[in-house]
Design a protein that fits this description.
single chain; 249 residues; alpha/beta; two-stranded antiparallel sheet; 26% helix
Length: 249
C-alpha cells in the first residue's frame, strides 16, 4: 500500500458505490445502445472558499459533440466517497466510451493530464462535507495505484498543438481529485466496463487570481480549447504515442 509501514490508517471495506451500480459484463449491451459513442466529462463544484471552479465551467462551455462523440457532462460534489458515487451513476446512465474527469489545481500554470492515481486519501483540508481523511486507503483491497487508460501523452501533445500549455503530470495529489480518478478506474475495473478513463487538472481561471498575488491563472477559453483537443486525441488514439513526457523533478 502507498502508506508507510506503521502509519495509522483506517481501511475502508469498499468504495461506497451502491451495489446496484455494479453491473455484469453481459448487461453492458443493454439500454441506451450499450457502450455508445459518448464521452462523459465531469467537473467539480467550487471548494476551498472559491466562488467558482473552472473544471465545471469548462464542462458548461464544451460543444455538444467532439470527434463524432456526444458530450455528456456531470457536476461532481467535492466530497470523498460521494464524488465516486455520482460519477458511477453517470457512467451507468450514459455508458460512455471515454470518461474524462476534470479538476482544479490552483497554483499550476499548465493543464496536466494525470498519468496515475494512488490508493490513499491524505487531505490537507476538509472536503465540502467536512470530511478530512488522513492516510486512508480509498479501496481497502484495491491495488496501490491505477494508471490512466487514456493516451495521456497524445492528449498533452494535442493540447500544445492547439496552443494551450499542457503536460503529463505524475501526481494527482491526495485530495478529492486523486480520490475520484482512482475510484472511477477501480469502479470500471470492478464492473467490467470497457470505457477508458483519466483525469485532467486545470489551473485557476483568470478571474480567480485577480486577488491572488503571483499565482498563475489561465483564460477559460484556452482551457476549453485544451480539453476539447484532449478529448479528440483520446478518441483518435486507442493506444498512446511513444514520446518522452517525463519530468526531471
Amino acid at each position: 500500500m502507498p502508506v508507510a509501514p506503521g502509519s495509522r490508517r483506517r481501511a475502508r471495506p469498499d468504495l461506497g458505490v451502491p451495489p446496484q451500480l455494479i453491473v455484469r459484463q453481459d448487461t453492458l449491451s443493454q439500454g441506451r445502445g450499450g457502450n455508445s459513442e459518448v464521452v462523459l466529462v465531469t467537473g467539480f463544484e467550487p471548494f476551498g472558499g472559491e466562488a467558482s471552479n473552472p473544471s465545471w465551467e469548462i464542462c458548461e462551455r464544451l460543444p455538444r459533440e467532439i470527434a463524432g462523440m456526444r458530450v455528456e457532462t456531470c457536476r461532481v460534489p467535492c466530497e470523498f466517497r460521494r464524488s465516486i458515487e455520482v460519477v458511477a451513476a453517470a457512467i451507468e446512465r450514459h455508458r460512455p466510451l471515454l470518461v474524462i474527469c476534470v479538476g482544479q489545481a490552483g497554483g499550476r500554470s499548465k493543464l496536466g493530464v494525470e498519468r496515475v492515481a494512488i490508493n490513499v486519501d491524505d487531505a490537507r483540508m476538509p472536503d465540502n462535507a467536512g470530511s478530512r481523511p488522513v492516510d486512508e486507503a480509498i479501496a481497502a483491497n484495491g491495488p496501490p495505484a491505477y494508471f490512466a487508460t487514456l493516451p495521456v501523452k497524445a492528449m498533452a501533445v494535442a493540447m500544445r498543438a492547439a496552443g494551450v500549455p499542457a503536460e503529463v503530470s505524475n501526481s494527482a495529489g491526495t485530495y478529492v481529485c486523486n480520490h475520484l480518478m482512482y475510484g472511477v478506474l477501480h469502479y470500471l475495473a470492478a464492473s467490467g466496463q470497457r470505457a477508458r478513463a483519466g483525469f485532467i487538472h486545470v489551473p485557476y481561471s483568470e478571474e480567480q487570481v485577480l486577488d491572488k498575488r503571483d499565482t498563475p491563472g489561465m483564460a477559460l477559453t484556452s482551457m476549453v480549447k485544451g480539453v476539447e483537443a484532449a478529448i479528440a486525441a483520446a478518441h483518435e488514439h486507442p493506444h498512446d504515442i511513444q514520446v518522452s513526457e517525463g519530468a526531471l523533478d
